[in-house]
Amino acid sequence: MSEETEVHGVCAPGFERVRRVFENNFARGLEVGAAVTVFAGDERVVELWGGWADRRAERPWRRDTPCFAFSCTKAVTAAAALRVAERGGHDLSAPVASWWPGYDAHGKGKTTGEHLLSHQAGLPAFDTPVSAEEAADPAAMADLLAAQAPAWEPGTGHGYHAFTYGWLAGEIVRRLDGRTVGAYTADEIAGPLGLDLWVGAPDGVAARAARLTRKAGSGPSRSADIADGPSDDPIARMARAARDPESLYSRSFRNPDMAPVRGGFNDRGVMAAGWPAAGLTTTATGLAGFYRDLLAGRIVSPDTLRAAVAPRVEGADAVLHLTSSFGLGFMRPSLVFAVPRAAQAGAFGHTGSGGSIGLADLDHGISIGYVMNGLGAELSGGMRSMRLVKAVYDSLR
């Protein structure tokens, strides 16, 4: 937008640099509308918002404006699965086929629940085309994946399951509890804790949600130049994979096919479907509050959380070609979850395509939520969120 964009909200003494970075993102024209919230323990130390909820500047962004947050969903789905397992005494290290009959087809018999949660299942992409309408049926999506052969032996490698993650990890909730991830989250997490957070947006929420646009923050495309880089450059390999329609990368991110959907992820039907890997609509405060409540033991026990955020896999990602690191559903510091040096030990969370991020830190006791509707070109996180996260950590010194 412009340097005249007014930023609203509160910022506790000592956290003024977060406001400066947030305002600067607007001044540099990187935002349409956005919000950021930070908790230190249970204390809200930052809650800022500004800009517009639509590209035409007809609706101002308000304190309670919800926004679609793409893969930030995965952390919520993981937390729901961990809570179901903890409350029900289910062993996630046991074979999936012990509670999901038929999943052991095509050599998947040794797959565990932990493999589903840590991107080790070997099913990062559907083998058959899936429409957005079909993707609204979690049982049908799960059946497709159960009948499919893995791209690698489960547990022997990892690769980012962009969409399939939700219908794999989500079955932990659906089969062991009986509710979908969206219903379970509403009943057991967001509702009781008072969080403005929905995996599947009701009509009233979708109606006032920010409209996503790529007008701001996307910048000029340099994918062709990047793809022509050295063969040993992982970013160049990822760019080449993005250009190859048969690569795991392309098949993972482009199926379900959103091309025929008018409005893309702004479509009310897609927002309502609550895809459990990319179906979260939330406010910045709702997202930060989710991580605050995770740290406080209100969603799962502290022991369960610590076990879940311990890195299960790290290294070259079979889909992204970059170095990634995952616990049970949560990203850990890596090239795809870049955090300041001070956050390397304790930070965990998940980014969303275009720039959003949810993050918490076990060592520092902070939680952060940042959402925006001006989508950047970033696959995961981005410079706007990185600068805000750094400003938070700088404020702790």
TrEMBL record:
This is Serine hydrolase. The lineage of its organism: Bacteria, Bacillati, Actinomycetota, Actinomycetes, Streptosporangiales. It comes from the Bacteria. Keywords: Hydrolase. SUPFAM superfamilies: beta-lactamase/transpeptidase-like (SSF56601). Residues 214-234 are annotated as: Disordered. GO terms for molecular function: hydrolase activity. Residues 22-378 form the Beta-lactamase-related domain. PANTHER family: BETA-LACTAMASE-RELATED, BETA-LACTAMASE-RELATED DOMAIN-CONTAINING PROTEIN.
